[in-house]
Specification:
The chain has about 425 residues and is α/β, with parallel strands linked by helices. About 40% of the residues lie in helices and about 15% in strands. α13 runs antiparallel to α16.
Length: about 425
């Protein structure tokens, strides 16, 4: 198996577990920051590691357009390209193509769309979406799907669901036939440690010393590099299926059951946060979870606020992603234990206090609200950097607290969003 999933503790329907991938073990529930173009805007990879990011999300549509899948593949895949040693998940590009509206045309074969960059015409099919994601080399990749618009009547939702199911089967078929082509398969020497990490160690203090089998043996003996994966297939990607069905409970149930019938090592709930009321989102998630296997990771796509990630973790979701913490940071909206703060407001101009007195991130330990407000008002690039670091830290600490509460079996603490399990 390319991934394994183990549940260590439960609290009601909430689960705390471990998801083992070729590039490291992920503690769940987990929040995945979005690195659309192989970059979390404004934050370097070393800071992401310092924050405790376990897995990043990359965007196939955007990376396909720039710098191009073939370029990334030739450079060893996303991990090596962006110097990120931990896990990566890529979406299939389906949601981004869906978002293009007038610039796309859907058929049985796939989607023809125009680039938002230069208007050039392109085509995504289940097969080409798999080919692109295999070339990018993420640990977890997603089946190609059609995101059903909101609102959609029953007939339209069924039509979209049926298309997604046919595309899921085609995605799996192509993946099974080509999964050994992942660019890092030959480089990978053990769980979480690609050979280029060892190569970097060897090159320190030497301009010409290259990695060799003898060097690798020495590193393994010293415990600096893991032992080789037993086979190439044991260190390859995993393909997750996506449940669609619009806002129709019966269609969601049918989609879940038929997607499970195709067979995937993990399942995502897609087609939400597309304009529907939040209460409806929760109801659909709760209903859909009843039909997903308990022993497989469950991924809720594109959600949400700090309150929502706690809420959905309490329902039994294991993985979530959202652009909100980074996008909000760029607009001066910051999340704190005392609520949301718009740092652009004049009332913070002389505020010498930390952004969040209960937060232990590098921003809150060092900078005042007054300074952060000044940076934003002056349109300094550092404002985006510091705001993003704080917001990501807040999200990641929230998930640490969620895992802590589940491990203790303290459902009341979990539901309250109490962050006392996180030490500043």
């Amino acid at each position: 198996m390319s991934i394994s999933f183990q549940i260590d503790a439960t609290s009601g329907p909430a689960r705390a577990g471990r998801l083992a991938t070729p590039h490291g073990v992920i503690e769940t529930p987990v929040f995945m920051p979005v690195g659309t173009l192989a970059s979390v805007k404004g934050v370097s990879q070393d800071i992401l590691e310092e924050l405790g990011v376990q897995i990043l999300l990359g965007n196939t549509y955007h990376l396909y357009l720039r710098p191009g899948v073939e370029q990334v593949r030739k450079l060893g895949g996303l991990h090596r390209f962006m110097a990120w040693p931990r896990a990566i998940l890529t979406d299939s590009g389906g949601f981004q193509v869906f978002s293009l509206n007038e610039l796309r045309k859907v058929s049985e074969e796939g989607v023809t769309f125009r680039s938002h960059l230069d208007g050039s015409s392109h085509f995504f099919s289940p097969e080409s979406a798999m080919e692109a994601q295999i070339g990018l080399g993420a640990d977890i990749i997603m089946a190609f799907d059609e995101c059903t618009e909101y609102p959609a009547d029953g007939e339209r939702a069924r039509q979209s669901m049926e298309l997604t199911l046919r595309w899921a089967a085609r995605s799996k078929k192509y993946f099974e036939e080509h999964k050994e082509e992942v660019p890092w398969a030959r480089d990978h020497v053990g769980p979480g440690v690609p050979t280029w990490a060892g190569e970097r160690k060897l090159s320190e203090g030497s301009d010409d010393k290259k990695i060799t089998e003898q060097n690798l043996a020495e590193l393994r003996s010293a415990g600096q590099v893991g032992t080789p994966a037993p086979t190439q297939s044991a260190s390859t990607q995993s393909l997750f299926g996506i449940v669609q069905g619009g806002m129709d409970f019966a269609l969601r149930k049918e989609s879940a059951e038929r997607t499970i019938g195709i067979g995937f090592p993990g399942y995502a709930i897609g087609g939400l946060s597309v304009g529907e009321p939040r209460a409806l989102t929760r109801t659909i998630v709760e209903s859909t979870l009843e039909h997903l296997p308990a022993d497989k990771p469950r991924y809720l796509m594109g959600v949400g606020t700090p309150e929502e990630i706690v809420e959905y973790a309490s329902l039994g979701i294991d993985m979530m992603d959202c652009v909100l913490p980074t996008r909000a940071a760029r607009h001066g909206l910051l999340f704190t234990s005392q609520g949301r703060i718009s740092i652009k407001q004049a009332r913070f101009a002389a505020d010498q206090g930390p952004l969040d007195p209960d937060c232990g991130c590098r921003v809150c330990r060092r900078y005042s609200r007054a300074y952060l407000r000044h940076l934003y008002a002056a349109n300094e690039v550092l404002a985006q950097v510091l705001n993003t670091v704080h917001n990501l830290s807040f999200y990641l600490d929230t998930m640490r607290s969620v895992r802590h509460s589940i491990a203790l079996g303290n459902r009341a603490q979990l539901l309250s969003g109490d962050r006392s399990g996180v030490k500043p």
